[in-house]
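Take a look at my tokenised protein here and describe the backbone shape.
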Amino acid sequence: MGERTLVGDTSTCPFGDVVWRTCYPEEHDRRAMEIAAINADRNNWSWDKDAGRGCKKAAVLWQAFATKWRETHMGDTPTLDLSDVGAISTLPILTNTVLIRDCYREAEKVVWRRAAGFGFGGGVIFTGQPGIGKTAFLWYLLVRLLQQGQVILFHLPGPSCLLFYFDRVYRLNQDDAILPRMR
């Protein structure tokens, strides 16, 4: 196991006491990016969306949101325009423009490292006081995953989830939906 170091200044980063980085060798980051490429390849997935009754095409606004972010390269932009979120989601965001903090970028790396199997298991939980940016980070991560062409299961408050599956978004009923599988 590598050495643990704090990422960023905890006085400016709400995840400061949570986002610790284990200093991984460069091959771990490379492996995480290989996994991202494998996950983004349609040929590596199979899904019979008609097998379950709980799958419907999501609203047009969700389709437009997904298309917008799949086709937008964020680069080093310091902010994220989420003005369309209020019209489509029950998951609130308090502002239309989100400042992309350095700790968001580092937390994204932590998520990918965990997905690659490095660290203590495959999941990541971000906790903290209300108003520190957890929901803003969730929207940031959704946008980043869309830009990378990932298959995403996004849980919203209530009995349904959204499945971002390549060029479409589906609303899934949690009780009887059939999920895509890696081949």
Remarks:
- Helices lie at 26-39, 60-70, 85-88, 102-115, 134-147.
- The chain has a mean pLDDT of 79.
